[in-house]
Amino acid sequence: MPARWRTARNRLHLPENFRLHDWRASKITNDLDAHENPVEVSANARHHSPGYTMARYGRRRAEGAKKLAASSASRIGLSSLV
């Protein structure tokens, strides 16, 4: 690991296993969740197309929330979410 990254990570109090890509992915997801223009988000991320950006990041949080809710419902004995 480069010394510069180690220094920056320590200065920002980031966990040792934190990767720049994690930060980048969070930024892209946050921008899309805030309904920013997908073309601009894709260009800022330097992806080859807005379609790629949307396919990769566009629905992650919503899908994750649904899976968590379904899992929790199942655990407490609810057969389905209404």
Can you offer a commentary on this structure?
The protein is mainly alpha-helical. Helices cover 67% and strands 0% of the residues. The chain is built from five helices and no strands. The chain is flat, with a radius of gyration of 17 Å. The mean pLDDT is 82.
Oligomer: single chain
Tally the helices: 5
Name the helicity range. Answer: 55-70%
For the report, how would you describe the main beta sheet? none
Which series of helices and strands comes N to C? HHHHH
Percent of sequence in beta strands: under 5%
Q: Which ranges are low-confidence, i.e. pLDDT below 50, for 5 or more consecutive residues?
A: none
Protein structure class: mainly alpha
Average pLDDT, all residues: 82
Q: What's the N-to-C terminus distance?
A: 48 Å
Total number of beta strands: 0
Form type: flat
Alpha carbon gyration radius: 17 Å
Summary of the model, kept short:
This protein has helices spanning 3-11, 20-33, 38-45, 50-57, 60-75.
Defining key terms:
82 residues; mainly alpha; 0% strand; 5 helices; single chain; 67% helix; flat
Annotate the secondary structure layout.
Blueprint: H1 3-11, H2 20-33, H3 38-45, H4 50-57, H5 60-75
Helix pairs in contact: 2-3, 3-4
